[in-house]
Q: What sequence folds into this?
């Protein structure tokens, strides 16, 4: 059985064009190593699928939440179609094992890399749209995203880590986070960025990702976690009478 056929059966859709679905599962790293074994990689389908997923999620949110304003709907959509959100959807269909990767990408655990899974999910959505049309593909995407579409999450939880970090630091010291590029390694099509985020002269978080934006997001998330952990320690120390720590001091930068 062809891998695309097995994948089609797993997602439970009446796929007709297995060649198109197969292309959606071809990462550029595999295609560069096997240029004669496929018609192409999945990046054009990813482009199409990105637009389809955004439209499907926008339509579902608009219908399900008639009382939400444009800002709230935008925040909810951003959370669902973010790299993290799409990776979650990809996990629900066990997409990783079906993606064809080059040898180097596979050795670097590419099948667990969020950006790769999110892109592959969009490519699959693009292939399904071309094969089955908008309605069935929209229904499939919406069904996978139902928990996020129906959740009544507070608006702050839907904001990106970078936005939350900036708001938190401006409420505190008034300083804006500074993101510093530490390293960028690998060839252009497989580059990995490493970023540090600094606030008030303290390094609060490190992040790594396939783009500067992804690495900055990971660094901001780590910084938020460290700030939250420090707040908990401060509250505990104050409540148990062990002394009143200096709550204005940021955690040391050497423990991230």
A:
């Amino acid at each position: 059985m062809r891998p695309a056929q097995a994948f089609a059966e797993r997602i439970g859709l009446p796929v007709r064009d297995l060649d198109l679905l197969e292309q959606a599962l071809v990462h550029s790293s595999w295609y560069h190593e096997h240029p004669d074994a496929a018609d192409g990689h999945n990046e054009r389908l990813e482009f199409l699928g990105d637009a389809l997923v955004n439209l499907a999620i926008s339509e579902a949110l608009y219908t399900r939440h008639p009382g939400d304003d444009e800002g709230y709907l935008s925040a909810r959509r951003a959370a669902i179609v973010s790299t993290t959100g799409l990776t979650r959807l990809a996990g629900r269909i066990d997409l990783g094992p079906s993606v064809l990767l080059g040898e180097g990408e596979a050795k670097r655990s590419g099948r667990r890399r969020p950006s790769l899974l999110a892109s592959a999910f969009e490519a699959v959505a693009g292939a399904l749209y071309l094969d089955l049309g908008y309605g069935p593909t929209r229904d499939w995407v919406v069904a996978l995203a139902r928990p996020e579409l129906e959740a009544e999450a507070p608006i702050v939880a839907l904001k990106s880590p970078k936005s939350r970090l900036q708001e938190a630091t401006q409420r505190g010291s008034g300083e804006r986070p500074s993101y510093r590029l530490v390293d960028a390694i690998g060839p252009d099509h497989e580059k990995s960025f490493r970023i540090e985020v600094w606030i008030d002269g303290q390094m609060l978080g490190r992040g790594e990702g396939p783009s500067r934006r992804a690495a900055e997001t990971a660094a901001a998330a780590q910084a938020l976690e460290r700030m939250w952990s420090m707040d908990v320690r401060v509250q505990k120390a104050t409540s148990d009478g062990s002394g009143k720590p200096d709550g204005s001091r940021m955690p040391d930068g050497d423990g991230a």
In short: Confidence is low (pLDDT under 50) at residues 242-256. Residues 212-239 form the longest helix (28 residues). The first strand starts at residue 178 and ends at 185. The two ends are 47 Å apart (CA to CA).
